């Protein structure tokens, strides 16, 4: 299917993509739960009968398995997960006695999941458009790296030296000031 996709015109691709998205949405709507994901986590909403109490629920997390149901009944959802989860960071809670909110922390935080349970319909993970992150959402080290990259890119566009080039120039100036006896007039510095 992917091979013939490459042969399609842009208009035909757009039609195919719309059909695929409509099919995906229909398949996902038929599941007994709704779900969304970010690179590092999955959130699942599982409707239960109104008035359900937490002690009536039977929820089991395993590294690659999940089961959500009511004691004494067949599980609402149960099966194999496509990838491992962090058990100690995955949680659930009952909201308004009618929805179980399941939060799964992915072990691999750089991977989109095509489905929650491996026997359920897949989504096309290549079509996922992640939400834009804000710099303030990033941890200090990552934020510093991103800000440096943005600054260096801006400097290059203006034909000015990047932060690394500026550091080298400052180090060279300090060295020259510390060694006035050396002649740098014909030196080639790279």
UniProtKB/TrEMBL annotation:
GO terms for biological process: protein folding. Its main location: cytoplasm. PROSITE patterns: CS (PS51203). It comes from the Eukaryota. GO terms for cellular component: cytoplasm. It is found in: Cytoplasm. Keywords: Cytoplasm. Residues 1-28 are annotated as: Disordered. Residues 28-117 form the CS domain. Required for nuclear movement. May interact between microtubules and nuclei and/or may be involved in the generation of force used to move nuclei during interphase. This is Nuclear movement protein nudC. It comes from Meripilus lineatus.
């Amino acid at each position: 299917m992917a091979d013939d996709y490459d042969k399609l015109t842009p208009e035909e691709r757009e039609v195919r993509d719309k059909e695929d998205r409509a099919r995906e949405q229909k398949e996902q709507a038929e599941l007994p739960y709704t779900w969304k994901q970010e690179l590092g986590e999955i959130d699942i909403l599982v409707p239960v009968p109104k008035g359900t109490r937490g002690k009536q629920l039977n929820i089991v997390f395993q590294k690659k398995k999940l089961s959500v149901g009511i004691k004494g009944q067949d599980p609402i959802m149960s099966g194999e997960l496509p990838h491992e989860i962090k058990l100690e960071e995955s949680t659930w809670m009952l909201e308004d006695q009618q929805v179980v909110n399941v939060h799964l922390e992915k072990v691999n935080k750089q991977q989109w999941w095509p489905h929650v349970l491996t026997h359920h319909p897949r989504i096309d993970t290549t079509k996922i458009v992640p939400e834009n992150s804000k710099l303030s959402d990033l941890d200090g080290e990552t934020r510093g790296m991103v800000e440096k990259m943005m600054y260096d890119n801006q400097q290059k566009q203006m034909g000015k030296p990047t932060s690394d080039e500026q550091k080298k120039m400052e180090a060279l100036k300090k060295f020259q000031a510390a060694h006035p006896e050396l002649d740098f007039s014909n030196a080639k510095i790279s």
